[in-house]
Specification:
The protein is mainly alpha-helical. It has eight helices and six strands.
């Protein structure tokens, strides 16, 4: 029963994101119509109902909250990262260290894991803290000379209407930060910062090190888990089902 429910939840979530991301609501068809209902008509109906029930002021407050979360630079996703990164490392130190060393892991894995994690933190904070290269009046002349215009994607005399400055080649205006950025790549909500000329190396190091630590942590976690199973002799142990009274012998499928 649990497996069926889990499969149903996964199917609904995957279908929702497929509908949201992959379907063009400008086309004909039932899926396009369904997306238009979900993304256009339903929000309008909810907003109208909210005005009647709660009033214009309450709906306006909700609008401002949604606009802040979705369309303005804010630290919400950074806080999620802190909770995951520091919380995961806390679990590794206070619950995993006592099982290292074991038959499969030497004690030096405590040091290796800690060093990699600290390097992850450092690269993350640098990617957040280092300015990506904001196009400002004081530095505009130097930034205009840094990259050549290809007259294909980047043309001269292309002024930013918001910053009221001519855009240097390979720059772009970030609507989240409300400023033009040199060698703009994207605005990263995990960093609450743009990725640009001066911090993209830290961003790449952040991505690479987190790939390494997740892979390393996955492997170490498996060996810790295997060590616990061996120490407690769980494979082959017998357990009684309190409901049916049936005696069951544990195997890998039972333990997992």
């Amino acid at each position: 029963m649990f497996s069926i429910v889990s499969f149903g939840i996964v199917l609904v979530v995957v279908s929702f994101f497929y509908l949201l991301v992959c379907i063009d609501d400008r086309n004909a068809g039932c899926l396009s119509t369904l997306k238009k209902i979900m993304t256009t008509h339903l929000p309008i109906a909810i907003r109208a109902g909210g005005k009647r029930i709660c009033g214009e002021r309450a709906v306006g407050l909700v609008d401002r909250i949604i606009n802040y979360i979705c369309f303005e630079a804010n630290p919400i996703v950074q806080l999620i990262y802190f909770a995951c990164a520091f919380g995961g490392f806390y679990i590794y130190v206070f619950y995993g260290f006592k099982h290292v060393p074991n038959e499969y892991l030497d004690s030096y894995h405590k040091v290796i894991g800690t060093i990699i994690m600290l390097a992850c933190y450092y690269c993350y904070f640098m990617a957040c803290w280092v300015s990506p290269g904001h196009v400002l009046k004081d530095t505009h002349k130097e930034q205009m000379r840094r990259f050549k215009f290809d007259n294909i994607l980047f043309n001269k005399k292309n002024n930013c209407k918001t910053c009221e400055l001519e855009k240097p080649a390979r720059s772009k205006h970030c609507s989240m930060c409300n400023v033009c950025v040199e060698k703009f790549d994207h605005h990263c909500i995990w960093l609450n910062n743009c990725v640009g000329l001066h911090n993209y190396k830290w961003f790449l190091a952040f991505i690479l090190l987190h790939f390494i630590i997740t892979t390393y942590g996955f492997v170490v976690g498996i060996y810790i888990f295997k060590g616990i199973i061996d120490d407690k002799k769980l494979i082959g142990a017998q357990f009684r089902n309190n409901v049916t009274g049936e005696i069951m012998t544990a195997d890998w499928h039972f333990i997992l």
